[in-house]
Write a structure and sequence with these properties.
The complex is a heterodimer of chains A (116) and B (107). Chain A is an all-beta fold and 116 residues long. Chain A is built from no helices and 10 strands. Chain B starts with a strand and ends with a strand. Chain B is an all-beta fold. Classes of the chains: A mainly beta (116), B mainly beta (107). At the A-B interface, β5 of A face β5 of B.
């Protein structure tokens, strides 16, 4: 059974940094392309970015609002996906979800709150 | 970027009703179109991928159709557990954009 568990969220001030983690199990993580999606509470869904498997180049793509501030990485030895967030803004507040290229299943998400 | 527009933004329906939600893309997504259901306070759940393929475990009253730029999610007979918000998403090109959502509530 595919399982994804996000962690690392919290309350930070504008301009600060935060690193989210996503622990994966139930599938061959090293072969998987992985995504991050976020949702402002009560609002819609926004794709944040994607990282390819290392065998497919391991490169990442990002949505325009986060490009240059967020970095997606992976540690295949730990079956873990990361989202390093720098220069956080109020509008980065929301639940962050990781998922495979199939966009299923979704974990419970981790809440990031950016507020002074 | 491909813009995804859902209609309606909300609708009220009764148990047993047939419900149709449409999703229009600003350019072709071929058949790379997903539908999600999000119940209040929960994470979204994939219902349909590839325009019309039901995710395992999704009831057969849900169906998807369309091609190119116009897609439809249909619930043939609305059940109490179907009152939720539904989103479409294109996975044809980066960035993978979502529609704004359609909230289905009880009439």
């Amino acid at each position: 059974e595919v399982k994804l568990v996000e962690s690392g969220g919290g309350l930070v001030k504008p301009g600060e940094s935060l690193r989210l983690s996503c622990a994966a199990s139930g599938f061959t993580f090293s072969n998987a392309w992985m995504n991050w999606v976020r949702q402002v509470p009560g609002k819609g869904l926004e794709w944040v970015g994607r990282i390819k498997s290392k065998s497919d180049g391991g490169t990442a793509d990002y949505a325009a609002p986060v490009k240059g501030r967020f970095i997606i990485s992976r540690d295949d030895s730990r079956n873990t996906l990361y989202l390093q967030m720098y220069s956080l803004k109020n509008e980065d507040t929301g639940f962050y979800y990781c998922m495979t290229a199939r966009f299923a299943p979704w974990g419970q998400g981790t809440l990031v709150t950016v507020s002074s | 970027d491909i813009q995804m527009t859902q209609s309606p933004s909300s609708l009220s329906a009764s148990v047993g009703d047939r419900v149709t939600i449409t999703c229009r893309a600003s350019q072709t997504t071929t058949n790379n179109l997903n539908w999600y259901q999000q119940e209040a306070g929960k994470a979204p759940k994939l219902l349909i991928y590839g325009t019309s393929t039901l995710q395992r475990g999704v009831p057969s009253r849900f169906s998807g159709s369309g091609s190119g730029t116009d897609f439809t999610l249909t619930i043939s007979s609305l059940q109490p557990e179907d009152f939720a918000t539904y989103y479409c998403q294109q996975t044809y090109s980066i960035p993978y954009t979502f529609g704004q959502g359609t909230k289905v509530d009880i009439k």
